[in-house]
Amino acid sequence: MAHLAIIGSHSVNGVAELHSDLLKSRVFPGFHEFFPGRFNSKTNGITPRRWLLDINSELAKLITGRIGAGWITNLDLLRGLEPFVDDAEFRDEWRRIKLNNKVRLAEYIEKHCHGAIVDPHSMFDIQVKRIHEYKRQLLNALHVIHFYHRIIHGEAENAAPRTAIFAGKAAPSYWRAKLIIKLITSLADVINKDPRVKDRLKVVFLPNYNVSQAEIIMPAADLSEQISTAGTEASGTGNMKFSLNGALTIGTLDGANIEIREEVGDENFFIFGMTAEEAEFERKNFSRTPWQVCQKNEGIRNVIESIEDGSFSNGERELFKPLVDSLMNKHDPYLLMLDLESYIDCQNRVGDAFLDTESWTRKSILNVARMGKFSTDRSIKQYSEEIWGIKVE
After folding, report:
1. pLDDT, tens only, 279-290
2. Cα 275–242–97 angle (5° rounding)?
3. How far apart are CA 154 and CA 157, in angstroms?
4. Which residue in 80, 122, 79 sits closest to 98, CA to CA?
5. Calpha distance 27→32 (Å, rounded)
6. Does the pLDDT value for residue 33 go beyond 80?
7. Mean pLDDT on 94-110
8. What whole-number distance in Å separates Cα of residue 149 and Cα of residue 169?
9. CA 360 → CA 33, 147, 235, 238, 245, distances in Å?
10. Which residue of 84, 92, 230, 354 sits 20 to 30 Å from the alpha carbon of 365, by its own alpha carbon?
11. Residue 160 DSSP class
12. Distance CA 29, CA 385 (A)
């Protein structure tokens, strides 16, 4: 089908720049040679009218009050917010709005998650998207367990409290993805009831994820999880929606993450893990195995053993065995164990950064101010002019 599509089209969009390059160099090098110039990049966009103006009206009003309403149809004008990072009153108002959005999400969680109580002052660490192994919700769950262990062993006394929020749906027959959902809900059952944890960590899996739910979630996020294995995500738009609402991103160099990081600045983005080139090389030339990672790192070994020994399944050791087997398989195509150390180290940096409220707020403002490139207005204009030859005034 892909071959027929390439032959029958005059233009093939690889979406994010990285994946357009991968199409040319790895997936369809023969077609690229035969049809030079046919493959191109038109990174996705999101509409600011919905994903900021509508769903985050308080923040939109604050922005309009400082730089005018022109940003609604020309998102590049958000750059006008940059000088306000040094305005203490503006930062206070920015934080107040974020807290209001978090309170609203906390109330939604209490209503829809069997009365679960989460603290709006904790870091809202959010991963919401289709449940799939390449998107690596399992990697996020492994960090949750690692953080849980640090808390109960008295090693996280000064760490920022977190609320880890997941949502998403798995395809009907995708049993491994459904088992990942089961693991996350099982973590919530254990961690949220453990008196040793108190309010240091809560885990939530929101049911029936949909766009209406996303409209409540996006404005409330402090941290956006965009952690797919490098080279597997064509672009992503959730990453854009979170950033446009002031969330900071922890992510791999994959899809539109690369371009978001280029726009917002390295210092305002938390990057970890292998590049696409390193991941491809690692699949063919093992530098280390998951077993070797566990032997070297006791904390990671304890995470795997706690899943394996039934700590999160009422002692039933077989329940999550398929997940443990995939994690410990040196042929795991998604390289979870090989990126886990880097991910945990990066999450520690995130926690430290969140404790510096003023610095975090500055980073949040700059994430919004520098999101102009990711408007659908830009992507549609590119399609019109560069693919269809229609001049847009």
Report:
1. 999 999 999 999
2. 145
3. 6
4. 122
5. 10
6. yes
7. 98
8. 28
9. 46, 21, 26, 21, 14
10. 230
11. P
12. 26
Residue 275 to residue 253: CA distance in whole angstroms: 6
Nearby residues of 236 by Cβ (< 8 Å), 6 or more positions away:
16, 44, 226, 228, 255, 256, 257
Residue with tokens 């993450």: 257
Percent helix / strand / coil, the chain, rounded to 5: 60, 10, 35
Q: What is the pLDDT of residue 122?
A: 98
Name which of 219, 223, 88 is nearest 165 in CA terms. 223
Q: Please tell me the distance from the alpha carbon of residue 347 to that of residue 328, in angstroms, as a whole number.
A: 22
Residue 46 pLDDT class (50, 70, 90 cuts): very high
What confidence category does residue 393 fall into, taking pLDDT thresholds of 50, 70 and 90? confident
Q: Which residues contact 60 (CB under 8 A, 6 or more apart)?
A: 52, 53
Average pLDDT, the chain: 96
Q: How wide is the angle at C-alpha 67 spanned by C-alphas 65 and 68, nearest 5°?
A: 70
CB count, 10 Å around CB of 47?
15
Residue 392 has pLDDT above 80, yes or no: no
Supply the pLDDT for residue 18: 85
DSSP 14-53: -SSHHHHHHIIIIISHHHHHHSTT-EE-----B-HIIIII
Distance CA 214, CA 134 (A): 21
**pLDDT tens-digit series, residues 56-65:** 999 999 999 9
**Tell me, what DSSP letter sits at residue 386?**
I
Helix (H) or strand (E) holding 252: none
Residue type, 376: T
Q: Which two tokens stand for residue 97?
A: 């709005």
Question: Which position has the token pair 């369809």?
Answer: 28
Bridge partners of 202, per DSSP, are 163
Residue pair 87/81 in contact by the 8 Å Cβ criterion: no
- DSSP H helical ranges for 35-174: 48, 57-67, 88-112, 137-152
> At 224, is the secondary structure helix, strand, or coil?
strand
Given a cut of 80, whether residue 351 has pLDDT beyond it is yes
88-112 helix and 357-369 helix, angle to the nearest 10 degrees = 90
What does the block give as tokens for 233?
């995500």
